[in-house]
Amino acid sequence: MKFFICLLALQQLYVQSVAQDFDFFYFVLQWPGAYCDSIHSCCYPKTGKPAADFGIHGLWPNYKTGGWPQNCNPDSQFDDLRVSDLMNDLQREWPTLSCPSNDGMKFWTHEWEKHGTCAESELDQHDYFEAGLKLKQKANLLHALTNAGIKPDDKFYEMKDIENTIKEVVGFAPGIECNKDSSHNSQLYQIYLCVDTSASKFINCPVMPHGRCDSRVQFPKF
């Protein structure tokens, strides 16, 4: 019996140590026009077509060494009741475009159980999703880009201009990921912003994600 109790205690300590072991977050915003304009296509959520704005993909704990923790606490499952007051905002700002059309629950479950559980030393489930929503509002990237004349109009823009515009807004250089459409055009797809472990402040990225983009990229319509 004592052995069993000790084993449970060690397992709990292991889960806690894994959950606390991260150095920063990647806050990842996705352009829906690029997601849909690819060989994978997309499906609008059951609430309808999202707004033509960057949507939240995730808030991901990472290591300075370049790796990341995941699925840190199998006992901590997503519970929509814990974020019921955020549901309208999640549907609007953190939508899913995966097929078949769905209500987003599977997507949010995945984000919490794979990534959010690894930040439980800092954020509970409600705080985790609320932090993502606040960060999107704080960055307000589409507003910044359009004010700089960089618009989702299917035209091509210099990558350096996109990077510099975002850096001016958040104070730090972003990581940018592009994808290819059916014509092999390089498109603005995802933007990575680095955030401190409290998920409240943008910081300089300890390590940049490996995103491949041409020197000029298309900002597709949605």
Order of helices and strands: HEHEHHHHEHEEE
The tally of helices reads 7
Helix % is 25-40%
CATH A-level architecture: Alpha-Beta Complex
Number of extended strands? 6
What's the CATH H-level superfamily name?
A: Ribonuclease T2-like
Strand order across the biggest sheet?
2-1-5-4
Distance between the termini: 60 Å
Mean pLDDT: 91
**CATH domain class:** Alpha Beta
* Number of separate structural domains: 1
Unreliable spans are: 1-19
Descriptors:
222 residues; alpha+beta; four-stranded antiparallel β-sheet; two-stranded antiparallel sheet; nuclease; hydrolase
List the helices and strands and how they pair.
Blueprint (H helix, E strand, L loop, with lengths): L1 H19 L3 E7 L1 H5 L18 E8 L24 H7 L11 H10 L10 H15 L1 H7 L8 E3 H12 L4 E6 L5 E10 L20 E3 L4
What would you note in describing this structure?
With 222 residues, the chain is of the alpha+beta class. It has one domain: Ribonuclease Rh, Chain A (Alpha-Beta Complex). Helix content is 34%, strand content 17%. The chain is built from seven helices and six strands, in the order αβαβααααβαβββ. The strands form two sheets. A four-stranded antiparallel sheet has the order 2-1-5-4. A two-stranded antiparallel ribbon has the order 3-6. Strand 4 and strand 5 form a beta hairpin. The radius of gyration is 18 Å and the shape is globular. The chain starts with a helix and ends with a strand. The N terminus is likely disordered. GO terms for molecular function: hydrolase activity; ribonuclease T2 activity; RNA binding. Keywords: Disulfide bond, Endonuclease, Hydrolase, Lyase, Nuclease, Signal. This is Ribonuclease T2-like superfamily.
